[in-house]
């Protein structure tokens, strides 16, 4: 068939979606993300920033108020908690600094135009080496010592925390780690070696050595290497196989991908051969290319909005985004997973709802592909170029000086 | 309601203070807001008690991703010398109902580490895989379990084969196969490698367009320093480039291109294979295959 007309981003609807996220209470379904509110807040602010509307559709009072909220979650000893839900009124082992929350807090402050004057920057930098494990990876939280228990590093071993720690180092230590020579750095070589050993046999990267390649973990690894200036043989066993693995995450959209799970199961079990074939049909344009093609995160899985970002950003960092089928990806997002009330759903299925994570990453993915109406973003920091510029104008970024 | 429960009489609840202009505020249910206020109060006291077990159970039911509540619960379980087997039972039910959750599996790992006996674990994991045989958290936990209790040879390979019989496209199972083979540090014998080559060939026969076995065999060959050309005949079987209408696997074409590109006298044939991929057999990746062709041409003139 000939391709349908080129879809456009319905910017006003997306803007309204994000205004609702910022100005009204999130529904009860978000309770399971209660401890990650810093992440949700960061995405909401960053989305309006990417849409270029943050200075116009929020007031200086709003932005000031949100900055205050972020700082309320800063711990006296440095670092942030993920939500006021974890605030126990006074210092406690059970209200520890969390590396993800700290990353998202700093990113939110930068997005909101804060100068980070009240940020306990030295304390965060001192915290980072304590979060590092012997194998070079990072834990999630550092439980403070009590009378009968020592300081304890906790959390799963996974690439997300590696990324957060490295991004914090980049943001707060400045160019090439020169910003505060008196604070001991974490062991960068060990972290690079950890990432290298997590590249799997198929070229993708996992959360840890021998884990299954996963596009989210791959993004964390590639972004971290890029922020460390180590996107070379010291950080990767093979760039070629990584590139190949990444471009193979794009998959043609089949009719069944847009069906309700149960309907597809029914066709599989009781449908005729024609029905099955129709469900697996791929619509193609005159050039033979699939009209819709999103990304999945692992081999033989289904396409999901967020992987357009995790894969797209990884390729952008490798300067190879041009290798994907941009049109098919754009159409997947703008015609299959966008929602009528604004935002993006996770999957291209009927009856779905948009959520904050997928709505933000869908926008960011379009931004990577230079979508009109979306500000340019830095793939490794996942924030707009303007926000990154503001960060790099801060004191410790100025070369040759270390003002703390 | 904690407020009306005499067991909680002595506790002054600690309500949440969100300040004046919060970000991403959630419309909590009254039940959650109240339980959280009591939880905060006893966490602040670092209380290790039976009621701490009760309230943490209640909270994790409403919010299974509450990371500090799990850490606190682990401490209480250990401090009270509570029965770890019954904690595992509690986690079974939890995991089956909240499949996509990091914390439940982290907590399980802490409990199992303390218990020191993995009896029943692989059975429970099978139950999880019946719901989703590609669950990332569960596979990650299984790898930990195998290493922690040194149960590499206690049916891992057989189990992988069972899962692959059910779904030959289960890439997580293929990955686990690789882990079982190479995760111990030393390379397996040539006999085992030959078996793996045969196993992969059979899997490809069932579904030539399934990328998992193609990726797997590349990994195996590279790991033991065997050339990709070991697989050349298989590639040619699924990708007879002289007769494109008989080509049944883009992955065979791709591997063939790599094999042919490594020999100067077959470089042109590699270009043909890449051209077929770009134009006919994998057009969503036209840009990528063209890029590979350019790289090949550059290498040829260098």
Q: Would you write up a description of this structure?
A:
Chain A has helices at 11-23, 37-50, 54-57, 60-72, 99-111, 121-131, 159-173, 188-197, 215-227, 239-247, 261-270, 273-279, 305-317, 326-337, 356-368, 385-392, and strands spanning 141-143, 152-154, 250-252, 293-295, 377-378, 383-384. In chain A, the strands form 3 sheets. Chain A has a two-stranded antiparallel ribbon with strand order 1-2. Chain A is mostly helical. Chain A contains 16 helices and 6 strands. Among the domains of chain B are: 1-110, Serine Threonine Protein Phosphatase 5, Tetratricopeptide repeat; 228-302. Chain B has helices at 30-44, 50-62, 67-79, 84-97, 102-115, 121-131, 136-148, 156-166, 171-182, 190-206, 211-223, 232-238, 250-261, 267-281, 286-301. At the A-B interface, α2, α4 and β3 of A face α1, α3, α5, α7 and α9 of B.
Summarize the structure.
The complex is a heterodimer of chains A (404) and B (302). Chain A is mostly helical and 404 residues long. Chain A has helices at residues 11-23, 37-50, 54-57, 60-72, 99-111, 121-131, 159-173, 188-197, 215-227, 239-247, 261-270, 273-279, 305-317, 326-337, 356-368, 385-392, and strands at residues 141-143, 152-154, 250-252, 293-295, 377-378, 383-384.
Q: Any chance you could write out the topology, listing elements then pairs?
A:
The complex is a heterodimer of chains A (404) and B (302).
Chain A: H1 11-23, H2 37-50, H3 54-57, H4 60-72, H5 99-111, H6 121-131, E1 141-143, E2 152-154, H7 159-173, H8 188-197, H9 215-227, H10 239-247, E3 250-252, H11 261-270, H12 273-279, E4 293-295, H13 305-317, H14 326-337, H15 356-368, E5 377-378, E6 383-384, H16 385-392
Antiparallel strand pairs in A: 1-2, 3-4, 5-6
Helix pairs in contact in A: 1-2, 2-5, 2-15, 5-7, 6-7, 7-9, 9-13, 13-15
Chain B: H1 30-44, H2 50-62, H3 67-79, H4 84-97, H5 102-115, H6 121-131, H7 136-148, H8 156-166, H9 171-182, H10 190-206, H11 211-223, H12 232-238, H13 250-261, H14 267-281, H15 286-301
């Amino acid at each position: 068939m000939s391709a349908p007309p080129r879809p456009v981003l319905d910017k006003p609807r997306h803007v309204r979606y994000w205004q609702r996220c910022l100005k009204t209470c999130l529904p009860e379904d978000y309770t399971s993300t209660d401890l990650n509110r810093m992440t949700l807040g960061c995405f909401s602010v960053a989305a309006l920033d990417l849409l270029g509307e943050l200075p116009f559709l929020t007031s200086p009072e709003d932005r000031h108020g949100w900055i205050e909220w972020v700082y309320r979650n800063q711990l006296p000893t440095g670092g942030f908690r993920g939500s006021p839900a974890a605030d126990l009124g006074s210092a406690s082992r059970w209200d520890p600094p969390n590396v993800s929350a700290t990353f998202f807090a700093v990113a939110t402050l930068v997005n909101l135009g804060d100068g980070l004057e009240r940020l306990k920057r030295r304390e965060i930098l001192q915290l980072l080496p304590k979060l590092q494990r012997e194998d070079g990876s990072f834990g999630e939280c550092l439980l403070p010592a009590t009378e009968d228990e020592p300081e304890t590093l906790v959390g799963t071993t996974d690439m997300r925390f590696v990324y957060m720690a490295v991004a914090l180092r980049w943001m707060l230590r400045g160019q090439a780690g020169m910003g505060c020579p008196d604070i001991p750095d974490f062991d960068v070589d060990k972290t690079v070696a950890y990432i290298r050993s997590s590249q799997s046999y198929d070229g993708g990267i996992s959360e840890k050595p021998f884990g299954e390649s996963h596009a989210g973990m791959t993004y964390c690894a590639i972004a971290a290497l890029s922020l460390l200036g180590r996107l070379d043989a010291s950080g990767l066993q093979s760039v070629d196989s990584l590139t190949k693995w990444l471009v193979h995450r794009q998959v043609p959209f089949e009719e069944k991908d847009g069906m309700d799970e149960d309907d597809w199961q029914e066709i599989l079990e009781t449908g005729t051969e024609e029905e099955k074939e129709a469900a697996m049909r791929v619509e193609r344009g005159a050039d033979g290319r699939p009209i819709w093609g999103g990304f999945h995160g692992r081999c033989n899985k289904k396409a999901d909005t967020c992987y357009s970002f995790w894969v797209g950003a990884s390729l952008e960092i490798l300067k190879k985004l041009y290798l994907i089928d941009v049109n098919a990806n754009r159409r997947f997002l703008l015609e299959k997973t966008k929602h009528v009330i604004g935002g993006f759903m996770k999957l291209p299925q009927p009856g779905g709802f948009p959520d904050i994570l997928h709505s933000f990453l869908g926008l960011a993915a379009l931004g990577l592909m230079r979508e009109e109406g979306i500000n340019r973003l830095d793939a490794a920091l996942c924030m707009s170029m303007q926000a990154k510029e503001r960060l790099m104008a801060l004191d410790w970024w100025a070369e040759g000086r270390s003002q703390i | 309601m904690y407020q009306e429960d005499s067991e909680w009489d002595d506790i002054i609840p600690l309500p949440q203070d969100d300040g004046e202009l919060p970000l991403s505020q959630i419309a909590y249910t009254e039940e959650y807001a109240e339980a959280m206020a009591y939880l905060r109060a006893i966490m602040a006291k670092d209380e290790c008690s039976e009621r701490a077990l009760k309230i943490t159970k209640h909270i994790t039911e409403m919010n299974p991703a509450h990371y500090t509540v799990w850490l606190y619960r682990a401490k209480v379980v250990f401090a009270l010398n509570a029965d770890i087997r019954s904690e595992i039972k509690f986690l079974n039910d939890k995991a089956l109902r909240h499949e996509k959750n990091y914390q439940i599996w982290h907590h399980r790992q802490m409990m199992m580490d303390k218990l020191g006996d993995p009896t029943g674990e692989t059975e429970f994991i099978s139950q999880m895989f019946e719901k989703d045989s590609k669950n990332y958290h569960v596979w990650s936990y299984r790898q930990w379990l195998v290493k922690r209790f040194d149960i590499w040879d206690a049916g891992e390979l057989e189990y992988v084969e069972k899962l692959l019989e059910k779904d030959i496209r289960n890439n997580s199972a293929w990955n686990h196969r690789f882990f079982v083979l190479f995760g111990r540090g030393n390379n397996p014998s040539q006999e085992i490698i030959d078996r793996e080559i045969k196993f992969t060939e059979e899997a490809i026969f069932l579904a030539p367009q399934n990328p998992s076995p193609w990726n797997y065999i590349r990994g195996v060959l590279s790991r033991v320093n065997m050339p990709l050309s070991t697989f050349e005949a298989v590639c040619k079987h699924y990708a007879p480039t002289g007769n494109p209408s008989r080509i049944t696997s883009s992955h065979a074409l791709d591997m063939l291109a790599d094999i042919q590109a490594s020999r100067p006298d077959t470089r042109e044939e590699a270009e043909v294979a890449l051209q077929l991929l770009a134009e006919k057999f994998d057009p969503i990746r036209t840009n990528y295959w063209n890029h590979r062709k350019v790289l090949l041409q550059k290498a040829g003139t260098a």
